Amino acid sequence: MKNIYKTWALAGLAFATTLTSCSDFLDQTSPSEMFPETVYNTEGYTQQALNKVYAGLVLDHTYGCRIPLNFSTNSDIELVDALTQETTTADSERGLCSYNAPNWNRLANNWSEMFEIIENANWVIEGIRGSEIRENENMRYYLGEALTLRAMVYFDLIKHYGDVPMKMESTKSDGSNLYLEKTDRDVIMDSLLVDLQEAAELLPWVGEAGYTSEHCTKGFAYGLAARIALAEAGYAIRETPKEGYVNLSEKREGQLGYSDPTYPTMRPGDEKRRELYELALNCLDAIITSGRHQLNPSYEDEWYRINQLTLDQTYYENIFEVAHGLNYSGEMGYTAGVRINTAGSPFGFSNSSGKVKLTAPFFMSFDPEDVRRDITCAPYELRDVTATQTFTNAPFGIYVAKWDVRKMTEEWRAQNAAVSTKTGYGINWVVMRYSDVLLMYAEVVNELYGPNGSGTCGKSAMEALAEVRSRAFNGNAEKVSQYVAQAAGSKESFFDAIVDERAWELAGEAVRKYDLIRWGLLIDKTVEMLDSYKHAIENDEYVADLYYKESAGADPWYLVDYSSVCWYEEPESTNDYKSVSFWGNVKKDGVIPDDNSTYDALNYISSGLISYDKYAGFQGAAGPVINRHVWPIHTTTINDSNGHLKNSYGFN
């Protein structure tokens, strides 16, 4: 299906589909050629119609790859692997993530498949509302799930395209609602918030009625509502200026700021903004008060379980996961993860792309005692049993270690050894974790009441931040309390701490870029990262040679004794150490060569967003439209819209 309009027309013709299993609860076959009154007056058939909505989430162009992996960069901590002029302007995800927004044909696929999910959800919502058994407990659950899924998909469309058509009913037989124009994003989000309030009342908590984190539950409805409320309260580029809204340039004390005169970056006024923060707080309070979701005490174990395809039914830290199937769908571990890059690898198929990268300034920003650093950042590749070949001199090419083949199951290894091309890794995409809820809570309480304030759950903003940070430092209460107390010196300093903590906690999880957008910090933080790298290289702050020791057992799965790695300086004695060239190995005779490719990359990273010179630094906002963080609607979609859709934000 090529576009939204063809999708709407076709989706209503029948409910027929056979679902390939992504998880046990999708392992069913829907009835074919049935009328709605038959389907939605039977719980089993209704569930199968709902499964079709879930099945749309696993596709490459939706939540298999595009939303969690391709669309979520660039930020100050995450980059796509585009470091040259050619790659940053390529007609691909590399050009897209560099904010040059080419007419990438896969945008048409994303648009049509996302709207197909919405259309299928509309059918379920309408079918249940008109059902004779709509008050049955399971039917109420199914309605809540459909409302929540539709809200999630719509929110992701808004994040990436800005204003989009608002279609909250299935396609009518006369086609009267087939072609729709755009609706203001805030109007859509207000509607989604109403839907999610209803969904939260309908749904069970995770662990009740057989509901796992692969289903939408009460906790996710609340969490998604909080996430949407914060986004609506924050900054976004607009198709036209909005009366009563605050322009991003106004916060810069008379400076130009990073807002376009025609397509300004704006947020709601103070009254509306406070309403949205209070709504978010009510939702976050409900999750925390329930006690149903907790942090896994071990950050390492949290990610081990995810790689093991094991649902956490003890702590329920993962509030919602898109269910993927081994050898069927999912690119976590392939497009994002520790890279396999060798022939004859003991890990099986040896060409995972690791396209999502982290940056050296982000790696160096971690406290050395923070356990999240080495679980998050992999400045190495997995090649063969020669340890000296694992580390990489790629300060803008650090892999995301949260997905690691060494943590995956024997079943995964057997599958990977038997293939010669990319295949479904089967690792669920975790849409939201409880740590995100705690950090949103800390941010909201601080905004409304300051660092010492609290919601109805009784937890202060400081306590919520400390809870997340305590796990990261293995319960080192003194270190954590000192840090949090210092951060709580003012509302502003506490906000800065939240900005940092969300980076350290959620890197690689498709959160950071959207945080920076709503905070109005996308350009600021991108420039700060490049300035940090430039200063470090020019002042020899990174080691030129990285010293380390091999693991005692010489296990080919774990070649390096990570506790021995000298990240910050050379050891006093290099005896018993091995070494590799590392990030600081840029200068020759004390000078950075003009043709150093890594240093050249400063000129090209996020080149559609900022203009940066490797010698002179930040030169100002770039692109035909300032702060253009959205994508164009693809030409195919526009051509098929019967004149109802057109591009904005300076796109053709």
Overview of the structural elements:
This protein is α+β, with helices and mostly antiparallel strands and 652 residues long. It is 41% helix and 8% strand. It has helices spanning 4-11, 36-39, 43-55, 60-64, 66-70, 85-88, 93-97, 106-129, 137-161, 185-202, 218-233, 270-290, 299-307, 360-365, 372-376, 410-417, 434-449, 461-472, 477-487, 491-506, 512-519, 522-538, 597-600, 635-639, and strands at 78-80, 164-165, 182-183, 236-237, 246-247, 265-267, 318-322, 356-358, 377-378, 398-400, 429-433, 545-550, 560-561, 578-581, 610-613, 617-621. The strands form six sheets. It has a four-stranded antiparallel sheet with strand order 1-8-10-9. A three-stranded antiparallel sheet has the order 4-6-5. The protein has a three-stranded antiparallel sheet with strand order 13-12-14, with no helix packed on it. The chain is globular and about 80 Å long. Residues 1-33 have low confidence and may be disordered.
Sequence-ordered SSE layout with sheet pairings:
Elements: H1 4-11, H2 36-39, H3 43-55, H4 60-64, H5 66-70, E1 78-80, H6 85-88, H7 93-97, H8 106-129, H9 137-161, E2 164-165, E3 182-183, H10 185-202, H11 218-233, E4 236-237, E5 246-247, E6 265-267, H12 270-290, H13 299-307, E7 318-322, E8 356-358, H14 360-365, H15 372-376, E9 377-378, E10 398-400, H16 410-417, E11 429-433, H17 434-449, H18 461-472, H19 477-487, H20 491-506, H21 512-519, H22 522-538, E12 545-550, E13 560-561, E14 578-581, H23 597-600, E15 610-613, E16 617-621, H24 635-639
Antiparallel strand pairs: 1-8, 2-3, 4-6, 5-6, 7-11, 8-10, 9-10, 12-13, 12-14, 15-16
